[in-house]
Amino acid sequence: MAGYLAGLMTLQAAVFTTLGALAPFIRTSLDISTSAMGVIGAAPYIGTGLAAAWLGTWVDAGRPARVIAVTTAGMATALAAVAASLNVAMLMAGFLLAGVARSAVPPLTDRLGYELCPVDSRGLVFGIKQMGTPAGAGLVSLTLPTIAASSAGWRGAIACLAVVVVLVGLPLSRTVPSARPTPTGPPQDTPEEPAPAHGDDSPQPPPHRPATASARMLATVRPLAPVMTFSFGMGVFISATMTFLTLFFVDTVGLDPVTAGAWFALFSVGGAIGRIAWGWASDALWSGRRGYPLVACALTGGTVAICLGAIPDLLIGVLGPLTALLFGLVAQGWVGLSRAFGAETLGRGRAGRAGGVLLSSMMAGGLFGPVLFGAAVGVTGGYGPSWIAMGTIALLTAAMVLPSAVRERSPRTY
């Protein structure tokens, strides 16, 4: 089950992180400035942020096989549009569509993971499934730059990825694991009162249904406010990192684009290990609590980012390519934890909606990360101030969610 969910997440992540893997080639080919690359880097986050919360509701109500088939077609179409792009506007439109197309997959995996996995191992399972995101990023970082450096160019690399998406996505749509049925009848919206107890799988009484769609969405997101805040802040941090880490390796460390892609792949490998390790720790060491490991991830990830800005020569001189591995280990482990937290907070029948809302929150942060990072590089002429700013944002995010972590009870106590 966990492996299947990780496969779905790998597929959507490969599409979502294409720009990060091919940024040096696209920048050179179309003669795009670094600050403009930051604007383009925000496009997939805008697409996902606009669509994820509403598609999460569709995921809760729809058949998983249909969701995967429609998503596969959308992702392949978006990649074809990117490959045909001739200017910045067309690139932004293509990556915007890619963000919309992939945004149903994470809420779907949240729904399936919540419905099929016992609470005692849910953190680990969510960590394994979220491992698909850095796995997808690592795969495209290792393969697409090599193809782009050949006669196929970056357009050929993206076209190859579009074919792979179809060849993998359609079989996945035909092999969906059976999920426990969600409640039937009218859609279950979170009541205006607090949501069901964290981790409670028992049937809930019919909730009061707010009069308007906006009121229903407000009632849904209110219990998620602390983890939404965390997802937004870390969305700023991770979006900037995913967009500019490869360029940092090229412009500051002095690596060639293919080697920089390999280092970015190490960052992704570290992220995969971190998501599993932090998920396991939340189950085994914190009795299913998600708050404290979320704080720890933000603190350590922010600290490494500040070191990249303040003492890059010392850090990379000592650790070399292991710098990227360490950074991924501490900077990406929070994603699975936050999604488990959200699904457990809203409960059965609303896990997809919780995943969509949290994904939208993270993507909202992603609107700012690449733009702010790229603008700071353009103004200062270096990456140091940008890394220090992103690291500071991560530290502030940890401080903001700490009170909620202190108050959190283990889901096993309900």
UniProtKB/TrEMBL annotation:
The record's annotation in SUPFAM superfamilies points to: MFS general substrate transporter
Q: Which domain of life is it from?
A: Bacteria
> Where is the stretch described as Disordered?
177-212
Q: Where is the Major facilitator superfamily (MFS) profile domain positioned along the sequence?
A: 1-409
Q: Where is this gene product found?
A: Cell membrane
Segments passing through the bilayer: 36-55, 67-98, 152-172, 224-250, 262-280, 292-312, 318-337, 357-381, 387-406
Q: What is its main location?
A: membrane
The leader peptide range reads: none
Alphabetized, the UniProt keywords read: Membrane, Transmembrane, Transmembrane helix
Membrane association type: Multi-pass membrane protein
Protein name, entry field: Major facilitator superfamily (MFS) profile domain-containing protein
According to its UniProt entry, this protein's organism is Salinactinospora qingdaonensis
